[in-house]
Structure prediction request, 432 residues.
Amino acid sequence: MNILDVANSAKKASISLSATNTELKNEALKEIVKALNNNASEIIKANQLDLEVSQKNNLAAPLLKRLRFDAAKIQEVTEEIESLIKIPDPVGETLSTMELDNGLELYKVTCPIGVIGVIFESRPDALVQISSLCLKSGNSVLLKGGSEAQNTNRILAKTIAEATLKAGIPDGWIQLLETRSDVNEMLKMDDFIDLIIPRGSNEFVQYIMDNTNIAVLGHADGICHVYVDETADLAMAEDIVIDSKTQYVAVCNATETLLVHEKIAPEFLPGLKNKLIAKNVTILGDQQTINILEEIQPATEDDWATEYLDYMLSIKVVKNMDEAIDHINKYGSGHTDSIVTADKNNAKRFMNQVDSANVFWNCSTRFSDGFRYGLGAEVGISTNKIHARGPVGLEGLLIYKWKMIGTGQIVDDYSTGKKKFTHKKSNKKFEI
Prediction:
C-alpha cells in the first residue's frame, strides 16, 4: 500500500472513529493492554534486535536508553493505558451554549481533530502512548518512528491494530510509515492529514514547519532550568536539582542549566557538587561558579543553549532573579523551568514572567509529563502558543465544532427586524 492509500484509509477510518462511543473505545484500550502483555516476549525480542543493531552503529547513549523497551517499559505503558481508560471521554463535551432566540440554540462541542501525523525518534513507548491517546480522543494516526526502532515499532503497531480491530474499531485508524521519503510525502498531504506533531531537534522541527501547509504542533529542544533563589531551603533545593537532572537524563524535561543566586552560591554549590559527582554528572560553570567549585569545566555560550540529554549540567551564578528570568527567556526553549524559593512574591513573579509552557515552584522539572499531570500520557510537549501548550494529552487532540438547533428560523426575519436575537447564555448540554 502506497502512502496515498495509507493516508486515505486513515481519513476514512477517522470519520467512523469520531462517532465511536466511549464504551467501545475503552474496550479497545483494554484489548491493547491484553495484547501487549500476551506478546511481551516477541516485543522484547524485536527490541533486542534493534538495540544490537543500534549499538553496532554507535547510536548515542541517550538514544540507546530511549530505545530500550523491556518488561518494565511494557508494564509502564500498560499502566498508562489503564489510567487513560479511567479518564472521562473528552469527545462531545459541551463547552458553551447560547440561546440566540426562543427555539434557536447554539452549542460549542468538542470533537476529534481527524488524522494526526506524528514523527518521533528512538522511543517505542511513544508509539503506544500516542496511539492510545489518539484512539481515546477519536483520531486516526499516522506514525513515523526512527529507523533505529524499526522492528519494535512494527510489532507494536501490528499488535495495537489487531487488538483494536478485534474490539470493533475501524480498520486503518493506525498506520505505520517506515521510510524517510514517507515523511516528505506526508508533508504534502493536507487533504488527508489535519495536524502534524514532530518530536526531534530544533532543525528537524523547523524543517517540518517550513515544508508543509499542515498545522504543526510540538517542541524541539528541552532546555530546562532550575533557579535557586536567595531564600531557598537549601536541602530542598539540593533534592530538586538532583532529581531534575539525574532521575532520567535522556528526556526533554530533565534540567540542563542551574541558576543560583550569588548570595547563597558559596554555601550551596560545594555540597551540591559532591552529590552531582556521586551521580556521575559532569559540571560546567561560569567564572563565578569556577571560583567557588574549582576543577570544573568552563561553560561556553553554546552550553547555555544546549540540551545535553546526558549526565552534564551547566551552572551560572546570577545577581538576582531578574537576571535568572532574562537568562531563561533568552536561552531556554520554552519547555519547563522551576524556581526554588521561600518567597511567595518571587515565586509569583517568576511564574508570571518566565515565558515557558510549564513553570514550577519548589518541585522538580521532571513533573512536566502528561501521565504525571493526569492527562493519560501525552503525544508530546508543545511549546507553541496555540490551542495546546505543555504536555499534550487528550484535550490537545481535540478541536470543537459549532452545532445549532432551530425550529424553522431564517436569517431574513432578523435582517428585516421581524425578530430579534436574545443572545442568552445557557448551561444546557448538547443532546439529540
The domain at 224-367 is CATH 3.40.309.10 (Aldehyde Dehydrogenase; Chain A, domain 2).
